[in-house]
Amino acid sequence: MSQPAAAEKPSVALLVTCLVDLFRPSVGFSTVELLEQAGCRVEVPPSQTCCGQPAYNSGDRESAKAIARQVIAAFAGFDYVVAPSGSCAGMVRLHYPRLFADDAEFGPRAAELAERCFELTSFLTDVVGVERLEAAFPGRVTYHDSCSGLRELGIHGQPRRLLASVAGLELSEAEQGEACCGFGGSFAVKYPDISVDMADRKVAAFEATGADTVLGGDLGCLMNLSGRLQRQGSRLSVRHVAEVLAGHSGPAIGEPGEGEGS
Questions:
Q1: Is residue 252 part of a domain?
Q2: End-to-end alpha-carbon separation of the chain, Å?
Q3: Are residues 136 and 173 in the same domain?
Q4: CATH number reported for the structural domain that contains residue 23 in this entry
Q5: Which among 44, 49, 54 has a CA at the least distance from the CA of 69?
Q6: Lower CB density within 10 Å: C or N end of the chain?
Q7: Do 28 and 241 contact (CB within 8 A), yes or no?
Q8: Does residue 202 sit within a domain?
């Protein structure tokens, strides 16, 4: 993979996301590796917080605005902001400008940040033009398209184009691959019976592909699916796409040893 000269390296700030930070740090490390391989200079702003999506989705606009102001300040001055999550990237790109639509100070700042913020696979393919990766992952996988990434950001072909370059990997698409997994943040808590039914439908579709592994780009969805698969005694493992693209093969999500490195 060709890289720009050092002087031309774009500065990229990693929006770690809460779930990655708390439950699956290897996704963050994999993201940094992929960005550096693509010729970017990566920094992780230490003052970053939650993107504010839980408060926003619950209707608490004032708390969401307070959190968003912190994020806008933390990520000022970088060429790009990249998140290994369509959900968090969608919050910044689409909902921050709406939150501050009538705010003379933060409205322009929110809009400016929105223009610089991207989900990982979209950034790699659409912005810096990565076509191939030096990674290997032998086996058959299937892919889950998260609702936010797919419907808000139009992310579908980008991860698949990158996965096509992974040695030994065979992608098998599931029926209803674009259907929701049932997580939806607080939706899974407010409507557990509906959520479980949706997840079980996804699990059945994944099983029918004959795949060994379920991949996706949003950790919330993947943790939800991993939980259902384990409760059903499924042989399927679950991984974030960034880990596979970076060539990591540590414990899958929910497996013993998770969080000890990869």
A1: no
A2: 23
A3: yes
A4: 3.40.50
A5: 49
A6: N
A7: no
A8: yes
Condensed to tens digits (0 to 9), the pLDDT of residues 164-209 reads 999 999 999 999 878 998 887 778 778 888 888 999 999 999 999 9
| pLDDT, tens digit, 9 for 90 and up, residues 80-110 | 999 999 999 999 999 999 999 999 999 999 9
pTM comes to 0.92
The count of structural domains within the chain is 2
Considering the domain boundaries, does residue 212 fall inside one?
Answer: yes
Domain range enclosing 154: 132-245
Domain-ending residue, one of 126, 159, 192? 126
**pLDDT for residue 64 is more than 50:** yes
Q: Are residues 122 and 156 in the same domain?
A: no
Q: Which residues of 148-157 are buried (b: 16+ CB within 10 A; e: fewer)?
A: bbbebbebee
Domain co-membership, 155 together with 234: yes
